[in-house]
Amino acid sequence: MRRRPAVAVLAAIVGAELLHSIVAAAQHRVPFSHDGFQYFTLQYYFLNDAIQSAEIAQWIPFMNQGTVASLWRGIQSALLQNVLLEMPVLARQFNLLTIYHAGMFVDAMVLLTGTWLLARRFFGPTTAVFISLSVVGGTVWIDQPYWNFKLVYAVPLLIELGHRFLETGRWRWAFLLANLLAMQMLGSLPYIIPVTSFAVAAYFLAYSSTHHRLVIAQLRSLRFGWRAVVSMTAAILSLAMAYAYFTSGTGDLVNYNASRNADGTTTLPVFLTYGGSTDVAKWIDMVLNLSPWMDLTLYSGILILPLTLVAVLVVDRHRVHFLLVTLVLLLFTLGTPVSSALFYTWPGMKFFRHIGLVSPLVRVGLCFVAGVAFEAIVAGERRQPKCLRFASVLLSVLLLAAGIFAHRLSSDPAATRALVDALSNPGTDRPTHVRMPDVLAHRLSVSATAAWIAGGLLMLGAIVRTKVSSRPRLEVAWIATLLLLIFVDVYRFKFGYLSARTERMPSAVQSVTWPSALPYPVRRRSSLKDAAVDGSNPRLEATIGFSSMFRYRLQGRASSGAQYWTNNAFVFADEAGSTFQVDSWLKPFDELLRMYWEMPIDNTSGFPPGIDLRALEFPLTHPAASKVTGISENKIRFFSRAFSVDTADALPPLMMSPQYRGNRLFVLRQLDQPNQGQSALPWNPNDDLTADDTQHVPYEVQRFSSNVLRLAVSNTAGATWISYADVWHPYWHATVNGRPAPIYRANMAYKAVPLEKGQNIVELRFGSSAIDTLAKLIALNSAVWLGLVVWMSGLAIREEFVASRHEIR
Question: To which H or E segment does residue 639 belong?
Fold first, then answer.
């Protein structure tokens, strides 16, 4: 195929990806549950808050009675999202579900640009089209955007940047490589970075081993001057910036991730087994397309696995490094000694787990390896016709066998079920379609048909290649037909995945994904079920109207996929515990829980029997607990006085006493700042715990957002303290009537501020100016990358057109 038709097919890929996003947005399609639902709802929360309050959310008041937002802000990040967070006026008039799908399209273009550029470096235009089709068309993110998309989307471009650095010796390409690696850290799980960095390093190690003379010459030509120093310094700052964006303010965050050590690392047995999917047998799904997993997909078209097997026989030295690096990554995902060695030697790898879920990155490598065989058979030289015919016949036989296997399996539900059980991880949720024998049978039938058609076309190609000298148009038609089959195959899979794994929002509830003001919850709910029963939360009702996951969970029914407590941020629900899975909370909240569990507050070795973090029921057995936590009383309360204690350890004997009614305010002396307002009184052990210091004071919430609560208080009753049942954190600051005021940690987990007499404007504000600066830098960096991707892809297309003119001449 000449270059110009190849560019036309490349444009068709862009069109198909755009159509995929348009269909998803126009039909208001939302992921069923799992990480895909979390990713969308987090993007909604942060962009919505930016639209409503012109700020970057640094605090989320709807999770675990208030928590720092850094981790969640980091994992929902994306190039388009980062820009819009700093320019929310551009998103104000749009449904935020539409923007979510647009952002996914933008990131898909990063994947396409990198894949095309890297493929063209080692393959002809026809094969580059085939590889781009297979990689981009086979990458889906509905269920799992982190592992199945964000893990891989920048890797081809990272490798291309590395090649440009070696070729030119210009340090700006090295900086861009590190900078893009930092940007890929955002919008994904932070512990994925060790795997991504290793994948890039392994690629260049494999490339160097097979092109050692070239690489040695390139390395010797490097000049280490001020440009190198500036580039490397900027690269380190880029990575530090991304790390800080994730971790700022998280020092008091307590994590309860399964099978992790206290410092976040894992043990080798956990590293090798956690998450499953480490069986080599799973790769049979590359021809079956059963897709029995929530966290990954392996299908990239019916040709990939058979072509990979042929590539092992025909690979040349120029491209053997693709085979080597893919083999290393495959061994890593299978829990072999390669995995164990990396656990101990590669920086940051001890923080990683889910080695089996690195398979989507292996899938991308296999697409490049398959390209070796594709080029040899379809677009290669004709100097070895016997070898080419043999490869074509072998590939046809493999496809015929795959088709027969899939067809026989489609008529045997029991065998299909046994295979699904063998491929799936025991005890883990499976997609809905896996429980439908007729759907699985249909998938297998389609795969069998695709295998037979592809096998027939390749057999025909073996015949065509012997006649090509007299009939070149016949060869062009054959190649075009084969590429059309591949195009239809992968996008049939992708659009089918969109339909099967999403829910279509009815028009009556679509308002839930438009920008909405955050309501201030006067009281906290003990559970989402209470709010669903009494209809006090319209967003929750609307979400139940389109989300079967929400509906089933509140009905006590099972639903597939992980369901996270971040959902509360989407429905603006302030819940005492969590109806959904919860992995972390702040230390003051942890001590509050342990106090009500009647455990030592510093005992973090475990939970009481029966505590299951797939849902967290807040302990309310103590008579005062519902008052203190803002369930039976307002979260905002006023007191005539407050009593100080030395440390948090002194609070459980007081607050857990049967005499305590929740009507006295206790603060920690370590935060007491005399000479800045009303001071707390030292607690006298002989004082009366049953006394009531509360006062009724009218107040009005003037502003409520993620980071700010501003109140107008008419303090005619002479109250001297205001308490707010929202978790304390050192980044909180307070002003009263415009003047800085001390903010105390109160009643174990919450906040209290001294008042002045008469009218008060009380403002509680969370945040750090450093985080705001980081957000601006990341937005600028994202905008630059959007421009770079457009520039690099446009330049590549221009080069193809220029080359095509020379072909015509």
Answer: strand 636-639
Residues linked to residue 763 through DSSP beta bridges, in sequence order: 710, 735
By the 10 Å C-beta count (0-12 exposed, 13-18 middle, 19+ buried), 467 is classed as exposed
State whether residue 29 is helix, strand or coil. strand
Pick from 310, 286, 309: nearest CA to 296: 286
Q: How many whole angstroms separate alpha carbon 130 and alpha carbon 138? A: 12
Length of the chain: 809
DSSP, collapsed to helix, strand or coil, labels residue 753 as strand
569 CB contacts (<8 Å, ≥6 apart)?
A: 41, 42, 45, 60, 62, 63, 72
What is the chain's Cα-based Rg?
Answer: 30
371-395 pLDDT, tens digit each: 999 998 886 655 455 666 777 788 8
Which residue is listed with tokens 């519902």?
Answer: 626
Parallel, antiparallel or unpaired: strands 750-754 and 744-746: antiparallel
- 470-505 pLDDT per residue, tens: 466 777 788 888 999 999 999 999 999 999 999 999
DSSP string, 495-532: HHHHHHSEEEPPGGGGGGGS--PPPP-SS-BS-HHHHH
pLDDT tens digits, 726-777: 999 999 999 999 999 999 999 999 999 999 888 999 999 998 889 999 999 9
In 3D space, the residue among 135, 102, 86 whose CA is nearest the CA of residue 26 turns out to be 102
pLDDT of amino acid 327: 97
* Gap between the Cα atoms of 354 and 276, Å rounded: 7
158: CB partners within 8 A, 6+ apart: 114, 177, 180, 181, 184, 196, 200
- Summarize pLDDT for 190-226 with one digit per residue, the tens: 889 999 999 999 999 999 999 999 999 988 898 989 9
Buried b (16+ CB within 10 A) or exposed e, 766-799: bbeeebeebbebbbebbbebbebbeebbeebeee
Mean pLDDT of the chain: 90
Q: Quick one: which of 252, 289, 263, 245 has its CA closest to 406?
A: 289
The residues facing 712 across adjacent strands are 700, 761
pLDDT of residue 413: 92
Q: Strand order in 642-645's β-sheet?
A: 681-682, 642-645, 665-668, 744-746, 750-754, 721-724, 636-639, 694-695
* Cα–chain center distance at 357: 13
**Cα 564 to Cα 754: distance, rounded to the nearest angstrom:** 36
From CA 752, how far away is CA 744, in angstroms rounded? 5
The residues, any chain, with a CB within 8 Å of residue 551's CB and separated by 6 or more, are 544
DSSP class of 279? -
Phi, psi dihedrals of residue 773, rounded to the nearest 5°: -65, -40
For residue 661, which phi and psi values (nearest 5 degrees)? -110, 5
Between β-strands 665-668 and 642-645, what pairing exists: parallel, antiparallel or unpaired? parallel
Gap between the Cα atoms of 629 and 626, Å rounded? 5
Could you tell me the residue ranges of all domains in the chain?
A: 629-704+708-766
What are the tokens at 142? 């509905």
pLDDT in tens, 326-368: 999 999 999 999 999 999 999 999 999 899 999 999 999 999 9
Contact 252, 367 (CB under 8 A): no
**pLDDT confidence of residue 319:** 94
Contact 191, 257 (CB under 8 A): no
